[in-house]
Structure formats: structure tokens, C-alpha cells
Specification:
The chain is α/β, with parallel strands linked by helices and 139 residues long. It has five helices and five strands; from the N terminus they run E-H-E-H-E-H-E-H-E-H. Helices cover 35% and strands 17% of the residues.
Length: 139
């Protein structure tokens, strides 16, 4: 799903289909558009294919293909997404303290309450710019 919501668009990168769908449902009900990816490589491919600048990136650390730390590094290295807020979701928060890529980022430990999740999203997300990246306009 890649809809623009009233509150902006959030990219969710989570390899578990059920958890990813749950995030999308919750965020959609809150008024956010959601872009979903099953791993870091898919997330980067989506960003390459579309002119999207999410309001927030929610990333799981334990994923196949391109793990969370690698995705965070790529996200930070891209001009279009370097300043997009990130929320790390993991069952192993100690990994974030041992990784330079995720050091200092907000971490939500699984399992968590709906209230905690929605509060963190509201605090971190900001209005998205779909179609308003730093790419020059087509003439």
C-alpha cells in the first residue's frame, strides 16, 4: 500500500507479514499513508522507483537481505531521506547500543502497547512531501 494520508506517509520495513499488516492498519486508522516493505532492499527499491519522501521510517532490525542497520545507513546516506526521522523496532534493544548506525535512535522494544506505538509515531512523524524531493522538476 502506498497511499498519502492526511498526516503524511510512513514507510514500514518489517519482514513479518502479519506485523507489517498490523502496523499498516494502525497507521492507516490514525490518518497516515503507509508504504510497506519486507526488507531493506525492497524499501530502497521503492524509494528508487517512486518520488516519495516519508514522514517517518519504522524499521525492524532483524530482517533478511538488508538488515535494519544497513537500511538506516543507506537512508542516512541518501540526500532525499537523510533527515527523515527513524524509529527502530526490535526484540533486542541491546543491539542498538552496539551499532553505530542505530546509536541514539528512538527504539521501541517488542512487544509494546498500542498506546506506546501511537505516541512514538505521533512524536516522530512529520508531514511528508510526496513528489517534493530534491530531484529537479521535469521540464
Amino acid at each position: 500500500m502506498a497511499a498519502q494520508g492526511d498526516l503524511g506517509t510512513i514507510m514500514v520495513v518489517e519482514d513479518n507479514d502479519d506485523i507489517r499488516a498490523m502496523y499498516a492498519d494502525i497507521l492507516g486508522e490514525l490518518g497516515y499513508g503507509v508504504i510497506s516493505a519486507a526488507d531493506g532492499a525492497e524499501a530502497l527499491a521503492i524509494l528508487d522507483e517512486r518520488d516519495i519522501r516519508p514522514s517517518l521510517l519504522i524499521v525492524d532490525l532483524e530482517m533478511p537481505v538488508l538488515r535494519g542497520e544497513g537500511l538506516v545507513e543507506c537512508f542516512r546516506a541518501r540526500h532525499e531521506t537523510a533527515d527523515v526521522p527513524l524509529l527502530v523496532v526490535t526484540v533486542s534493544p541491546e543491539r542498538t547500543r552496539n551499532s553505530e548506525a542505530t546509536l541514539g535512535l528512538p527504539v521501541l522494544r517488542k512487544p509494546f502497547s498500542l498506546e506506546t506505538f501511537t505516541a512514538m509515531v505521533a512524536e516522530l512523524a512529520r508531514p511528508a512531501s510526496v513528489g517534493a524531493s530534491s530531484r529537479p522538476p521535469a521540464l
